[in-house]
Amino acid sequence: MAIPVLLFFLTSTSRPERNEMSNVESDLIVTDLCKEYVTAAGSLTVLKGVNLTLHGGDALAVTGPSGSGKSSLLFVLGGLERPSQGSVRLRGRDVFAANETELAAWRQQSVGFVFQEHHLLPQCTVLENVLIPRLAGPGTTAEDVTRATKLLDRVGLQQRIEHRPAQLSGGERQRVAVCRALINQPALLLADEPTGNLDRENADSIGSLLLELSRDVGSVLICVTHSADLAARFPRRAELRDGVLTPIT
Q: Cβ(112)–Cβ(189) under 8 Å?
């Protein structure tokens, strides 16, 4: 399912308020979440009564076979699609009580996405790509640039900030994508097969970065993956099969 990634970052006209890293409140409560799609063959149910509670700094890996509803779960949690039934609350806010304009503003402020494909803009530098989520307002500030530079330094790309994506390796591009997802200090960080296109060494590096940086920011991290190695590194795991989410003890 295609995602208009640039539009995702640019669909809000309000700038998110700053959060101190130690004060981010990002509890996520998902209640009886269902999602149905209308197809030519009839109604297709992909999520069946999903319930989930996570707190700031928590990290959950969701595994399951292809077609089990993993990406649909992320799309609903991230406000890209509305559920057919149930509710999503983040920081005490009922996400889907909002209209489309309010939902877009909430999504830009509160959610960071990391995709299997990095979706970097080829004409922009590494630094400019990280700053893209900050463009949904009157423009970037010196504080934004400082934060982006610090994130890139944290992931070992301080010498690459003026490079274009074509000058980076696959692992480096995905590190830039992780920094972009975190530039707004989101309450919710969603990763969809973030290591699917990487070799083992780079996959391990990206997995470590996601866990470490999301914990530092205080984000709730949910990662869907087919990688048993990546899932095993998460403190919490669950399997989504036939639309039903089951915790793995």
A: yes
CATH of 55-81+108-248 among 3.40.50.720, 3.30.460.10, 3.40.470.10, 3.40.50.300: 3.40.50.300
What is the Cα–Cα distance from 174 to 193, expressed in whole angstroms?
11
Please give the structure tokens belonging to residue 234: 């998460």
Q: Which residues contact 10 (CB under 8 A, 6 or more apart)?
A: 108, 132, 135, 136
Separation between Cα atoms, residue 153 and residue 213, nearest integer Å: 12
Q: Are 51 and 63 in contact (CB under 8 A)?
A: no
Weakest mean pLDDT among 7-21, 49-63, 162-176, 230-244:
7-21
The alpha-helical segments, DSSP class H, found in the chain are: 5-9, 70-77, 100-110, 126-131, 142-154, 170-182, 200-217, 228-232
Structure tokens at 218: 């205080």
| Cβ-based neighbour number of residue 48 at 10 Å | 17
Q: Report the DSSP pairing between strands 236-241 and 220-224.
A: unpaired
Q: Read out DSSP for 137-191?
A: SS---HHHHHHHHHHHHHTT-TT-TT--GGGS-HHHHHHHHHHHHHTT--SEEEE
pLDDT in tens, 63-102: 999 888 999 999 999 999 999 999 999 999 999 999 999 9
Nearest to 28 by CA among 92, 99, 81, 83: 92
Rounded Cα–Cα distance for residues 77 and 84 (Å)? 13
